[in-house]
User: Fold Dephospho-CoA kinase from Telmatocola sphagniphila.
Amino acid sequence: MNHKPVIGIVGGIGAGKSTVSQALVKLGGCLIDADQIGHAALRDAENLQKIIEAFGPKILKEDGSVDRRKLGSIVFKDPLEREKLESIVIPWISDEIRLRMKDFSANPVCQMVILDAAIMLETGWNGVCDKILFVEASLSTREKRVKARGWSAEDLRDRESSQLPLEVKKARADAVLANDPDSPEISTQLVSLLKNWGWRR
Assistant:
C-alpha cells in the first residue's frame, strides 16, 4: 500500500501556515502548496485566455501576464467575480493537486504529504486529508505579518471575508497549533502532535 498520511494545513491569513508546512517538510513531509499551484494556474495559456475573456485585458501586466494585485482587487471585493475566477482555476488546481498527491504517495522519500491550501475546506480538498491542522495566531500578529507583505488591514479583511470564518475552520480541524511570537517552538508542537497521531515514534 502506497498511501502516506496526508496533513491538511488551514488557518487565518498571516497565521504562519507556510512556516508550519516547512517545519513538517523538515520532519519528512513532502509539500503540496496550493497557493503556488494557483499562481501556475494563472500562467497556464488556456486559463489565461479564459481569464482575459472574463475580466478584460485591464488585469494584465505589460508583459501579458496576470497582475495578481489588480485581479485580487476585483475578486476579493465581489463574490460573483470571485466565483467567476474560481470556476476557471479551481478545476485546474484540483487536477494538479491529485497528480502531485499520486507522485508523493509513491515516493519512498515522503514520510507524509502536506497540503497547504487557504481554501481547503471551501473546495473540498480536505477530503484527501487524514488530518486537518489549524494554525492559530492573534489578529494583531497576523496584521503585522501581512503588513510585511505590503498588505493593509483592509486587504486582510477583504481576503478573509471571502473564506469560511476562522471559527468554522478551527472547529473542523483535528488539532490546533499556536503560532504567535510567544508560542512554544513550532517543531516541538509538531513532534508532539505527530506522536499523538501515531505517525512518529
